[in-house]
């Protein structure tokens, strides 16, 4: 902070021994320090300093040998009498001065630096100092001028102004500065001064004196220390980077290389030189080598890792498969180009509970994932995904109702059972605790001769439970394939994966109808040959094992025979009687309804074949 200095000077020059050039200044607005000269250079005794103000009578007198006194700052003006005494104590010169408030200068005390702390890993200096605010009224604006210097010659690097507000307390202020040159390369120095803007003060205001210089020594000041700095550091693509080589006294640097290119060197001290790399491009996964070649064939080096700050995570999504673990996934965006201990790190923070977990991610996967435990009695989760690497950090957030983000695991242990030709019973297990929601499960039914069908069934969820469903109206003697998938019933999010396929064949049922039949009469007319068409699979309801062919006269069977598969015809002797011929298809479950045809000859002119 800048502090203006103003002096009060007596315009009168008296005879020998008279006081002159009276100057008064204040550091704290309450007390002021007054100093003066004496017109002669001879030896003097004590000086009597007396002062009066409008509200202070009689005069207050002080004795001093220093030509310097500290007195209160007057409300408006003060009359000062300075008497110079001889060594024996006899007064021999007296001078009177009138001090007005506009003649008093305000100059803050010189700031005192508490600490100057280096962080070599980031080339950052941390400066701490006390603002001395307790001696001033509340709310004054303070300005602090901070000067950074480097090298043995204290070359000025930068000067900044820092603003603060005084609070009538002594506050420790802190300020950070990052150097464009590693702190190891050469010594850095800091000094500070202040200016306090006391608007109600009518006299001149000035900056304080500069504080004593604080130093952070470079490695080039330490005996027996050498190396290339910074060591194995990480910077952003496009950065301008300064790299230095510190060597032993008496050695010389031949050249410095960045990758394979030789760079011009910047002299820092007798033991340190640097190079400046502009607009650094992304390095290989193993980094970029920097080599310092010294006289006598020796060399030192370091590795620079140049990459990108992490992107904001894209498509952050969180769901649960079992109400035990919440799985959050996201896409990381552009690769950082940093690997190993410098890779991008992720953490998942839940704001409602205050719980935080670190995420172990696989850099080789395009999609990242992180698990977070489901918390008791909490349905809503307010997630912040934090992302950081040595270059930077960012985050993405998501508010989610877990009951609306359920993606169960694929059903397990699917079994199909049944002792029926048209129905089956399915059982399956889902790993998870779904007691707080209802589940919707979808059963896929397929067979070789029909289209795939889907059957939905809703049921209460359970804890690590087995679930069941009954399927009816199936077709007899059919080989079916079943599989199951499930989701939340009330707030559908997505289906689980399908279970494994389970096969089941329904039992046989009696054939649905009799076969199509026809006949041929023999030329002699004494016999008929009966033919039938095999039933389709959907009509047979099982494996047809035989056909029963009968000849009836007035409900009385004249002849009956069993014809086994695969024959599809037989011959019946008529004798003297016509009859009604019946054909019944049989499987292991029973017989079909009969198909009938008469043996009576059709009228002349009609064809001799007849089909039922």
Automatic annotation (TrEMBL):
UniProt GO cellular component terms: external side of plasma membrane
Domain of life: Eukaryota
Record membrane topology: Single-pass type I membrane protein
Location(s), subcellular: Membrane
InterPro entries in the record: FN3_dom (IPR003961), FN3_sf (IPR036116), Ig-like_fold (IPR013783), LIF-R-like_Ig-like (IPR048497), LIFR_D2 (IPR040817), LIFR_N (IPR040901)
Keyword annotations of the record: Disulfide bond, Glycoprotein, Membrane, Receptor, Signal, Transmembrane, Transmembrane helix
Pfam families: LIF-R_Ig-like (PF21177), LIFR_D2 (PF17971), LIFR_D4 (PF25552), LIFR_N (PF18207)
Domain spans labelled Fibronectin type-III: 410-509, 511-605
Residue segments, region Disordered: 587-612
Ranges of biased composition (kind: Polar residues): 589-598
GO molecular function, one term: cytokine receptor activity
Protein's name according to its UniProt entry: Leukemia inhibitory factor receptor
């Amino acid at each position: 902070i800048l502090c203006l200095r103003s002096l009060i000077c007596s315009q009168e020059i008296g005879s020998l021994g008279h006081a002159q050039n009276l100057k008064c200044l204040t550091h704290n607005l309450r007390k002021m320090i007054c100093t003066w000269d004496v017109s002669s250079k001879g030896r003097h005794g004590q000086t009597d300093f007396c002062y009066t103000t409008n509200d202070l009578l009689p005069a207050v007198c002080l004795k001093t040998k220093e030509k310097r006194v500290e007195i209160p700052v007057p409300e408006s003006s003060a009359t000062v009498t300075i008497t110079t005494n001889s060594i024996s104590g006899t007064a021999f010169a007296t001078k009177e001065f009138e001090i007005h408030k506009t003649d008093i200068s305000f100059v803050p005390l010189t700031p005192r630096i508490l600490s100057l702390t280096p962080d070599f890993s980031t080339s950052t200096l941390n400066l701490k100092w006390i603002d001395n605010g307790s001696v001033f009224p509340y709310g004054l604006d303070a300005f602090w001028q901070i000067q950074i210097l480097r090298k043995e010659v204290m070359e000025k690097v930068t000067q900044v102004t820092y603003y603060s507000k005084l609070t009538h307390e002594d506050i420790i202020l802190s300020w950070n500065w990052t150097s464009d040159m590693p702190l190891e390369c050469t010594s850095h120095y800091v000094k500070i001064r202040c200016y306090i803007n006391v608007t109600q003060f009518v006299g001149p205001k000035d900056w304080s004196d500069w504080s004593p210089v604080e130093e952070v020594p470079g490695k080039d000041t330490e005996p027996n220390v050498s190396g290339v700095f910074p060591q194995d550091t990480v910077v952003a693509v496009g950065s301008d980077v300064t790299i230095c080589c510190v060597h032993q006294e008496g050695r010389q640097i031949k050249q410095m290389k960045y990758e394979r290119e030789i760079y011009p060197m910047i002299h820092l001290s007798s033991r340190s030189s640097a190079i400046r790399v502009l607009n650094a491009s992304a390095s290989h996964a193993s980094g970029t080598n920097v080599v310092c070649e010294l006289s006598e064939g020796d060399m030192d080096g370091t590795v620079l890792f140049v990459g990108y700050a992490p992107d904001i995570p894209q498509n952050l999504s969180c769901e649960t498969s079992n109400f035990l673990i919440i799985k959050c996934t996201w896409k990381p965006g552009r690769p950082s180009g940093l690997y190993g201990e410098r890779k991008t790190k992720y953490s998942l923070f839940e704001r409602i509970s205050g719980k935080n977990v670190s995420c172990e991610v696989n850099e080789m996967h395009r999609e990242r994932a992180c698990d977070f435990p489901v918390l008791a009695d909490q349905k809503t989760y307010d997630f912040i995904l934090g992302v950081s690497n040595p270059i930077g950090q960012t985050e993405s957030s998501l508010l989610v109702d877990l009951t609306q983000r359920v993606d169960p695991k694929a059903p397990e242990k699917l079994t199909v059972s049944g002792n029926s030709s048209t129905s089956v019973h399915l059982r399956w297990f889902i790993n998870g605790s779904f007691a707080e929601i209802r589940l919707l499960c979808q059963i896929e039914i397929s067979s070789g001769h029909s289209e795939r069908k889907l059957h939905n069934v809703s049921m209460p969820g359970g804890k690590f439970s087995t679930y069941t469903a009954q399927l009816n109206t199936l077709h007899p003697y059919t080989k079916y394939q079943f599989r199951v998938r499930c989701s939340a019933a009330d707030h559908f999010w997505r289906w689980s994966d399908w279970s494994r396929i389970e096969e089941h064949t329904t039992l046989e049922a009696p054939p649905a109808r009799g076969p199509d039949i026809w006949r041929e009469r023999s030329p002699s007319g004494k016999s008929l040959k009966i033919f039938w068409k095999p039933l389709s699979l959907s009509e047979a309801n099982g494996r047809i094992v035989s056909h029963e062919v009968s000849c009836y006269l007035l409900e009385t069977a004249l002849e009956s025979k069993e014809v086994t598969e695969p024959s599809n015809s037989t011959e019946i002797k008529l004798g003297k009687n016509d009859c009604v011929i019946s054909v019944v298809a049989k499987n292991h479950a029973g017989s079909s309804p009969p198909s009938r045809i008469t043996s009576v000859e059709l009228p002349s002119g009609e064809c001799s074949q007849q089909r039922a």
